[in-house]
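Project standup — Tuesday

K.O.: blocked on the structure for the chain from last sprint. Re-posting the sequence here as requested.
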Amino acid sequence: ENHRSGAARLRWTEGDALAPDTFAGILGAGGFFEMVEDDVLGARLPVFARRPRSIAATVDAAAGHGDRPFGVEGERTITFAELPDRVCDVAARLAAAGVGRGDRVAMAGRPSLDHFLIALGTIARGAIATVLNPAWTDDEVAHALATTDPALHLGEGGPRSFADLLAGPAPAPLGADEVAVAEDDAATIIFTSGTTGRPKGAV
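H.V.: unblocked you, prediction finished:
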């Protein structure tokens, strides 16, 4: 149930509760998840005061988890410590492929480590990760591509696979001006299920 003024306890699930002073210490002034009001695309909304302001900042903060695994796929593991360099590498590869800020990068395929790395690298580049459902029909894929007009189409059914993008020598890292992403820049397009019509892209 929601926290209400004067309530003795904040209950998340049955048998699990937080005392109000603990709750205030987490979300209140000075807490790690302190909430404040800020302008978000012209609207005043509650936001986290100590939030990372970009994917790059989020990834850099995550590196503090060190050698703990960020992702595991079969015998392959990527640690949190490795993550910032991997994401920067993807961003540079996308730039070398002609992807600029605000461009869409269509990604078709089932979740994998490469899928996640390319999504993070796309957003770090300032482009928009456009996720295509691998279960779609050819007609649904064509509709999504026509709707979003991606600068690059990767994965199943695309002219380049995830592995193609990640193969070969690493390009030079991008300069700070090439990855200067604003907090309110569009990051991803996720399509609805299309149950009542064609899938619609939500930014």
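K.O.: great, moving the ticket to review. Confidence is low (pLDDT under 50) at residues 1-10. The longest strand covers residues 35-40.
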